[in-house]
What we know:
Blueprint: H1 2-22, E1 27-32, E2 35-40, H2 41-66, H3 68-96, H4 100-118, H5 133-152, H6 156-169, H7 174-190, H8 194-202, H9 206-209, H10 212-224, H11 228-240, H12 246-262, H13 267-275, H14 279-282, H15 285-297, H16 302-316, H17 325-337, H18 344-356, H19 361-373, H20 377-387, H21 394-410, H22 414-426
Antiparallel strand pairs: 1-2
Amino acid sequence: MRAALWLLALFGVAVAVALFAGNNQAVVTIFWPPHRVDISFNLMVMLLAALFLVLYLALRAVSAVFSLPAEASRWRAQQKERAMYGALMDALAHLLAGRYIRSTKSAQNALAQAKSLNLLTDESGHVTGHSSSRGKQLRSLAHLLVAEAAQALQNKSLRDQHLQLALKSSRHAQEVREGVQFRAARWALDDRDAGAALDWLAQLPQGASRRTLALRMKLRASRHARQTSQALETARLLAKHRAFSQAAAQSIVRGLALELLNDAHDPVQLQQAWLSLDESERAMPELVVHAASRLMALHGDPELARSWLLQVWDHMMQPRSDIGDNLRIKLITVLEAGLDTIDATWLARIETAQLSRPRDANLQYLAGMACLSRQLWGKSRQLLSQAAPALQDVTLHRNAWRALALLAEQREDEAGAAQAYKRAAQI
């Protein structure tokens, strides 16, 4: 369509010229004493157009002759720039292929090409366009490739040298600088230097420090540095950003919370660690039971431990509880450790649970030990005798027979006590 319109316009111009020039009787007289030249106006117009065209072509030719040195310099710069980009691509390809020495040589070749390219100047005396931000980014990437290859070859001196050069070249390129800092933190983690990795991550801007990549490295470095509180906070942020699946995030947070509870060395520290957990974390049965177990092991307040365990106990007594057998046994073990100070309310809970589930050997064992602590010898002997053969946990099984032995000694039944001790020793 456009070509047809241009063709119509061309025909229109031709018709206009024909109408103007066809009937034009004008004459141009040129006086050049003692001569006189008479030419038609149309010929004069054609001669002027031809003269303009000749002058234009002559000026273009002169300009092309004088611009030859600049064109030659620009051509050489283009060749060097192409060679530089080619060397950079070769360095990246060799690095991905595991050819680290070749990658180093190619990256150093790219840096040499970039250095020689900066020496070329255009005709105005300014350096070529490669010295702009793009050129600085390219030199930073070349230094980074050399440092990456040196890290793979465990040449730390060469790595640190080119790392500093990459940071210097990327001073005004924010994204490249952040990438260099990320790689430096990764190398520190590979060298198991958690402190250096955290220092590199601390130098990142606020926005970059909250990226998933930074949080992952911070989590790993914090765990290596035994900074459990910081690692737990980082894991919460990663779970919030959905960097892990829900099950994986819950497992990581639970593991760090357990580690935080294990780092407490007295009841006060343990309570502080427990209060530092989130509501959702304090509702995890594994954490609740472990916190109560640690509190009892540190000779803390048994009443406080039982108040923590109450939610797990109620959950365990539900008809379709998902609490596993190992956690049930641990819960019973923690309650057993505080039976000397147990109150009537908890005794009623234990008795009600045992009556509602008469075939549960673990609950029978707990009820029997509670009766033993209250010196209810007969009922304790009855419950423990029923629970001992059915107990699957080794510790509870052994403790049940030992308790039966003590009850036999209480009745002065030497044969029964010896038999119970023998059964306990055989487990």
